[in-house]
Amino acid sequence: xxxxxxxxxxxxxxxxxxxxxxxxxxxxxxxxxxxxxxxxxxxxxxxxxxxxxxxxxxxxxxxxxxxxxxxxxxxxxxxxxxxxxxxxxxxxxxxxxxxxxxxxxxxxxxxxxxxxxxxxxxxxxxxxxxxxxxxxxxxxxxx
Length: 143
Hints:
The chain has one domain (8-141): Winged helix-like DNA-binding domain superfamily/Winged helix DNA-binding domain (Arc Repressor Mutant, subunit A, Orthogonal Bundle). Strands 1-2 form a two-stranded antiparallel ribbon. α3 (54-61) crosses α4. The longest helix is centred in the C-terminal third of the chain and has 25 residues, at 99-123. The chain has helices at residues 8-28, 36-48, 54-61, 65-77, 99-123, 126-141, and strands at residues 81-85, 93-97. With 143 residues, the protein is mainly alpha-helical. It is built from six helices and two strands, in the order ααααββαα.
C-alpha cells in the first residue's frame, strides 16, 4: 500500500457513506415534482445567480449538448427558465431561471427538507441528532 492508497477501513467507510447517501436521495425522489435533470439545471442557475448558455450548462452538468438543449426546452416550455439573446454572440442564448423556476426549485427543496426533518425527529434520539448535526460539518469538509 502506497501513501496515496486509502486504508481498507477508510475505503469501507467511503463505500458505506456513498451507499447511505444514495439510499437517502433515492428515498426522497418519489416526492419530487421536477425531474432530476431539470432540478439540477435550476439548482445551478439559482445558486450561481447568473445566466448560462446551453453549452455551459451541458459542461457544468456533464451531459451532452443535445441532452441539455432538450432539458432547457422543457424548462422553457413550462416557464421555469427564459432564454435571452447573448449580448455579443447572436448565435447563443443565455438561460436564466424565472421566478416560477426559482419557486418550483425552492418548493421541492422544502419538501425534501421537511421529509428529512420528520425522519430525524421520529427516528433519532436527541443525542443522535447532535451527532448528525456534527456530521454535517464533517461532510462539508470532504468537498
